[in-house]
Amino acid sequence: MSQPTDQTVSLPEKPYLAALAGHTLERPPFWLMRQAGRYLPEYRDVRRRAGSFIDLCLTPTLACEVTLQPLRRYGMDAAILFSDILMVPYGLGQRLDYVEGEGPQLEPITDAHQLERLSIDHFHDRLTPVYETVRQVIQALPDRTALIGFAGSPWTVACYMVQGAGSKEWDKVKGFAYRDPAGFAALMTLLETVTVAYLAAQIDAGAEAVQLFDSWAGILPPKPFRRLVIEPTRRIVQALKQHYPQIPVIGFPRGAGMLLEAYTLETGVDAVALDTTVPPDWAARHLQCHRPVQGNLDPILLVAGGEAMATELDDILRTLSRGPFVFNLGHGVAQVTPPEHVEQLAALIRSWPERR
Ligand code: 1CP
Fold first, then answer.
1. Is residue 332 part of a domain?
2. pLDDT: which is higher, 8 or 352
3. Is residue 34 annotated as part of the catalytic site, yes or no?
4. How much distance in Å is there from the Cα of 36 to the middle of ligand 1?
5. What pLDDT is recorded for position 1?
6. Domain contains 21
7. Catalytic residue among 84, 214, 275, 298
């Protein structure tokens, strides 16, 4: 880990970026995965006005507004672009719909022949509003707040593209990957290419860091984990670093378990986001000595609030704030989260330097 010790190295002014650059801060910066969303009444208002969820993602003024909503209430150190990982299949021309109460639904790509239905030709045209949202958000942000762009990792995006919706078994996508490795590799290669282009366009528009969400990394056995999670991530990071060496890339391989250390070291990500299952003291010893870490309060403790949340929060802060660290949840904010519990959390993080 290159903990900067040289006095001439100046601290980035945005605490979130300073932590990702390897600095240990007295008060760890924080943001929350899914910090914008339906737990906020003002989000539900804008969502209603937008019509569909896709319209919300593709209307820059509204997407910018909902990006900023949680920051106005809680003053997080970073904003995350309001969009969705499934905007990539949308950009490739796959039919996508968000069904109220049921989540996303796509017209599934069930085998290699169906890759013909996808096209890279109109990708940036279709996603121009996303880049415009990034431009509007970066203009509107307070000086000390950073802007995170994001994409799903190829594996996780492929999960939805092949399965057609969320799933418990993910049988169709795993079946495709096992049955026809070459055909599945063609889909993964396409996704790698567009993911690099998509993140590059977000960076060009003003994103100051990018996070790769690999929410379904944990459903793969070790060998396909290396082939479908570690290798594509390594190539994406390498491609981005060629053009944007100064932009940090954060990886979130949810459920990686015993392969988390290999993921962290072998992909080249600048920082790793921990899911709720990772013991903070283990992460301090095995990961934080190599890279800054982010995480990992159970989102349901944020639903519970009170003492239970405060105790666990302090435990995480005590263990991980001695090194480069960004506080976050171990997964996204739950829809049933009471907004006042997020207020309690933000106050506790802010007062950490006096309580430590
Ligand atoms: O009706 C609504 O308002 C839709 C709810 C919603 C929201 C608020 C969806 C549908 N996506 C989002 C926004 C979103 N999604 C963000 C915005 C920024 C923020 O964090 O505030 C981000 C980063 C995502 C990323 C995302 N989408 C992931 C990766 C993180 C994770 O949660 O694991 C995944 C897997 C998705 C797919 C998706 N989009 C929406 C839903 C309900 C789902 C999950 C589907 C499922 O598997 O059941």
1. yes
2. 352
3. yes
4. 10
5. 46
6. no
7. 84
Residue 144 Cα, ligand 1 centroid: separation in angstroms?
26
Residue nearest to atom 10 of ligand 1 (CA): 103
Average pLDDT estimate for 1-27 = 79
Residue of 43, 160, 198, 263 with catalytic role? 160
Q: Give the amino acid at 149.
A: G
In degrees and rounded to multiples of 5, residue 305 shows phi and psi of 65, -160
Residue 1 lies in a domain: no
Domains held by the chain: number: 1
Residue 171, exposed/middle/buried by CB under 10 A (0-12, 13-18, 19+)? Answer: exposed
For the ranges 4-8, 133-137, 168-172, 238-242, which has the lowest average pLDDT? Answer: 4-8
Whether 48 is in a domain gets the answer yes
Phi first, then psi: what are they for 98, rounded to 5°?
-105, 110
- State the residue range of the domain holding 65: 27-355
Q: What is the pLDDT of residue 9?
A: 59
Any idea what the CATH number is for the domain that residue 210 is in?
Answer: 3.20.20.210
Residue of minimum CA distance from atom 19 in ligand 1: 34
- Could you tell me the distance, in angstroms and rounded to a whole number, from the CA of residue 87 to the centre of ligand 1? 11
